[in-house]
Structures
1.
Amino acid sequence: MIPTVSASASSSFAPLIPSISTPTHAPSLSVGKANSLSFPSSPKTSRLSPHFSSLRSPLPMRPPAAVSIEKETMETERPDTFLRESESGEVRVRFEKMIRDAQDSVCQALEAVDKVGKFKEDVWSRPGGGGGISRVLQDGAVFEKAGVNVSVVYGVMPPEAYRAARSASPDQKPGPIPFFAAGISSVLHPKNPFAPTVHFNYRYFETDAPKAPRQWWFGGGTDLTPAYIFEDDVKHFHSVQKKACDKFDPTFYPRFKQWCDDYFYIKHRGERRGLGGIFFDDLNDYDQEMLLAFATECANSVIPAYVPIVERRKDMPFNDQHKAWQQLRRGRYVEFNLVYDRGTTFGLKTGGRIESILVSLPLSARWEYDHKPEEGSEEWKLLDACINPKEWL
Amino acid sequence: MIPTVSASASSSFAPLIPSISTPTHAPSLSVGKANSLSFPSSPKTSRLSPHFSSLRSPLPMRPPAAVSIEKETMETERPDTFLRESESGEVRVRFEKMIRDAQDSVCQALEAVDKVGKFKEDVWSRPGGGGGISRVLQDGAVFEKAGVNVSVVYGVMPPEAYRAARSASPDQKPGPIPFFAAGISSVLHPKNPFAPTVHFNYRYFETDAPKAPRQWWFGGGTDLTPAYIFEDDVKHFHSVQKKACDKFDPTFYPRFKQWCDDYFYIKHRGERRGLGGIFFDDLNDYDQEMLLAFATECANSVIPAYVPIVERRKDMPFNDQHKAWQQLRRGRYVEFNLVYDRGTTFGLKTGGRIESILVSLPLSARWEYDHKPEEGSEEWKLLDACINPKEWL
C-alpha cells in the first residue's frame, strides 16, 4: 500500500525522503553481517486488512517476495555537492551550500561545548542522485547523543498525493511526480537533566509536475525540550527565535510558535513533547529569496539560541531522581518521534536510511507505569507547561 | 479520520478496544493534576493532508475542539464480572472467567519467582459496560517491569471496516457494528540480560451485524524475546507451545509459529523483535468449544513455558556490556510496539487507557547510532536469529 503522505512529510530528523521505486521494506544496512545474510520475505500485509477477510481465508497469507528499492551507498569522502551534474536550479545550489555550512558550524560549536566528544561522520549517496552526510557525537562529556544530518534527495511522489492535492478527478491518473528535497536536521540530547534537548530541521522542496509550473516550498523549525523549566532559558530560546522571525515578518513568530505547539503534540498523552519554539511547513507564498534568507537566518540562530543554555546547565549537580525524570521525558520524545513525527514514520515506511532517521532517538529512555509527579513539584511544572503551552515572551 | 482497522487489531498488550463514540484524542488520565488542567484543543489534522492543500492555505488550520469520548472510571474493587447484566453469551462468560483465572495464576507464579516485588492493581470500568484489571509489578528483584492485564470491552466498529470486509457496494451504508472483546495480555521484562522477555495475549471477539448472524473469533499468541540465545531455553519454550497446539491440531504449531515470525517483524530493521513462539488471529473455522479450550490451554502454558527459563537465568552474573545489549534490544521492542503492533497503535489512536496500553514498554531502553555486533559474537548470533528465523524443534 503506497502511503498517501505528502512529500513535505519530512519534518523530522529523517534524511528527507529517499528515492523510492517501490515503497516496500528493504534490507537493513545497519546489521554487521546483514548483506551476507538472507533476508526474510515481508510479513503478511493481509493482516492489516479487516478481520472479516479471514473468515473466508483463516490461514495467514504468505507475503510476496520483497521488492528491491534503491539503497544508499556508503562513501569514503564528502563530495562537493550531492546535486546532479545537470542541476541548474539556483536555489537548490544555494540551499545545499547553506545547510552544509550550517552543519559545519553547528558541529564545530557543539564540539567546543563538549570538549571531549567528537562527531563521527558517515557520507552516503544514492545511485540515482542525492546523498547525505550524517554526523553523530555519542556519549561525549556534555552530550549523550548529538546528531546533525544533511541530505539531498531526488524522489518520486505517489500520484495519489498529487491527485488528492490538486482535487483532480479520480479518473485522471497522472504519473508519479518527481521531487527534489534538501535539508538539515538535528537532535541534541545532553546528559545533564537540567540541560534541555533541542531539535532543528530546515528543508527545501521542489516538484516537477508534468504540464505544470515547478512548485517549491520551505519548511522547518527549532524547538526546545527540557526536563526542567528554567524560565530564563526558555525566554532566551524563544526570544532568539522571535528575533530571527521578526527580521522577515512580524506575523511569523506568533504563527510559527503556535504551529510548533500544535505539531509536537503527543495526542495519546494530551501533552507536547517540550516547550516549543517555531515550526512551519509548505511556505511558498512569500518571495523565494526572502524564504531562503529566512531559513538561513533560522539555521544560524540555533547556536545562539541553544549554546548559552547548555553552557549554563551542563555542570549543574543532579541526583538520580532528576535523571529518572529526564529519562521519562525522553520516553515521551521516543513516543512522539515513532508514533507521530511525519518525517520519521514516512522514512520508516519507505526505506530511508534507518540509522540516520533514528539517530533522533535518545541514547536511553524510560517508561514507568502510571507515573504522576507530585502536584507543585518541578516535574509537575514541566508537565503542566507541556499540557498547557505558554506564551514565553 | 476514522481508522479502518479491524476490531481484531488488539493483538498487543492494549486493553483491546475502548467503546468509542468519536475517535479523537482524549484527555490523559495519567497526569496527576490533569483533570483540573485545561486541555489543549487537538492539533491541526490538516497537516496530515497533502502539502498542496496549503499552497491554497499556507496558514496552519486551527483544530476543531476536542470531542469527548467515553473514558474509563477507576474502581476501588474488582467486580465479579465486567459483562453486562443482560449478557447471555455463554462463551463470553466462560472466556472472562478463564482470563481472570489466568491473570491470578500468572501473577501468583511471578510473585513467587520475584520474591520481592508485588503486583499493584488498577481496576477500571466504562460507563457503557466493560472494564479491566491492570496489574503491574515494577522494579522487583527479578522483574524490571511485569504487566498482566485483563479487559472486557463493548465497542463499535467503524462501518468502513465492515463494508470493506464484506465486499459490499460502497453505496451501502451499514451503521456501526457493535462488538464485544475480552482478553488477557501481558509483557514480562526481567532485569537480568540473560533472562528473556516474554509476551502473551489471548482474546475473544464477537460482532453483532444488523441482519446477519453473530460473528466470533479467537486470537492470541505467546512469544519469547531474549537478548542472548540459550538454545535449551528456546527449545523448551517452543516445545511447550507445540505441545499445547498438538493437543488440538497438528497443523497449529507450524502455522502459528510461522505466523508469529511474520507478525513480530520490524520492517524498517529487517529483523524480528525476538525468537517467536505462536501467534494466530481471526480463528473461527473450528468448533467454538475447541477454540475456547485451545485458548485456555495456551494461557495455562505460559508459566510452564517461561518460569523454568527465568529461574535458570535470573541470577546469572553479567557485565555492563551485556546490560547495554539488553537495553538495545529493548529499544527494538519499543520500535515494534509503537510503530507496528496493531493493538498498540489502534489503542493510541482511539483513546484507549494509555497506561494499560503502554505498560508493555520496558522500564528502560537504549538506542546507539549504527551499532554493529562483532561477527560471531553472542550478540551477533541473536541478531542473526532475529533476521533469519529458525526452526527450534
2.
Amino acid sequence: MTTVVRRRMGVEERREQLIAVALEQFSHRSPDEVSVDDIATAAGISRPLVYHYFPGKDSLYEAAVRRAADELANRFVEPREGSLGTRLLRVMGRYFDFVDEHGPGFAALLRGGRTVGSENADAMIDDVREAAYRQIMHHLEVDDPGPRISLVVRSWIGLAETTALTWLDGRRIPRAELELQLVHSFLALASVSAAQDEETARVVRRAVAEERPDSPFSELVAQLTATV
Amino acid sequence: MTTVVRRRMGVEERREQLIAVALEQFSHRSPDEVSVDDIATAAGISRPLVYHYFPGKDSLYEAAVRRAADELANRFVEPREGSLGTRLLRVMGRYFDFVDEHGPGFAALLRGGRTVGSENADAMIDDVREAAYRQIMHHLEVDDPGPRISLVVRSWIGLAETTALTWLDGRRIPRAELELQLVHSFLALASVSAAQDEETARVVRRAVAEERPDSPFSELVAQLTATV
C-alpha cells in the first residue's frame, strides 16, 4: 500500500514539475513558440519521458494553461474590507502581477484556441471572465443583476484585458498608473450607465458615499470636475 | 477577346455570388456551423461547382470574412462634420447596423481563427481595429499619438466590441441606448486618462467646447453632475 501511494505521488509531482516548467517557458515566449523539446530540456528529462506523463503536447499545454487560468481567476478573490475603490485597486494590483509574471502566456490565453494549442482555451478564458464577473458582483452587493449592470461589469473586465495587453506591448505607461486608471474607469463606465438604470445608479451612489477623501473614486470625482 | 472577357466576368460574378451567399448564411449561423453543401444549395449550384470557383472551403470562408471585415472597417469612415460626439454617434449607428446584419459572422470574426475556419482571421480583425483606430485619431486631430491617448482609443474600440457581443446575446438593451452609451463612454474614458495626460486633456476640452447643449457629450456632463 505504502509503495503504491508513494509511486502515485511521484507521478503527480512530476506532472506538477512539467506544468511549472511549461508555465515558466510561457512567461518568456508564446506557447506556439515553445516545443516539447524545450520543456524536456528545461525539466532535465528526455522527450519520451514527457510523453509518459502527458499523452501529447496538447494535454500538457492545456494543463498548464488551465493552471494559469485558475490562478488568474483567483486574483479576483478579495475580502470585503475597505471601500469598493480600494478593493478594486488591490484586485488590479494582483491582476497586473499575473500579467507581469505570465506575459506571453497571458496574451496567448486571450488570443484563444490556436495560439495555446488547445481547443478548450476559449472556454478557459470564458471561465476566468465568469469568475471575475461573479466576484465583482459580490462586491457590488448585486444578487440578481439586470442587463445594464451586467454589461458594465463585463465591459470593465474586457477593458482590463485590453489595457493589460496594451501594457505588455512595450510597457510604455507605468502599471501603477494603469491599475488606478482601471479603477477610475469602472466608476466612469458605471456612471454613464447609471443615467439609464436605477440599479447601476444605486451601485454608483453607494460606492461614492463610502469613499474617504483620499481614496480612488474621490480623486476621480475631483479630477473630472476640474477637467469638465 | 470578347468571349474571354465575358468568361472572366462570369467567374468573378459567380465568386461574388458565392461570397454573398456565404455572408447571408453567416448572418444566421456561425461559420463553423455552415457547410459547403449549405452554400451550394443556397446558391442553386452543385458542391463540385463551388470548388471550381474556390479551391477549398477555407478559401471561400476567408474571402467572405475578409469582405465582411473590409465592410466593417468602412463603417468607421465619417466626414468631419458636426461635433465629435455627433460623429461618433453616427459611426456607432453604422457599427450596430453591421452587427445587426451579420450577427453570428461578427461574433465568429471576433472569436478569431478556429471559428471562422481561417488562420488569417486574427489578422483580419486586427486590420479592422487598426482602420477604426486611424479613423478615430483623424477625428481627434491627433497626428502622432502618445501612449495614453492611443490606449484610450484602443480601449474604446474593445469596449464597442464587448458591448456589441453582449447585445447580440439576447438583445436585452435597446441598441440606440447602447450606441449613445458608447459615445458617452468614450468621453468618460478619455476624461479619466486626461488626468494623467495633457494630450488627452486637450482632446477632451476641445470635444466638450464644440458641443451644443443638446448633443451627446453635453447630456453626459449634465447626467454625471446629477449622479455624483
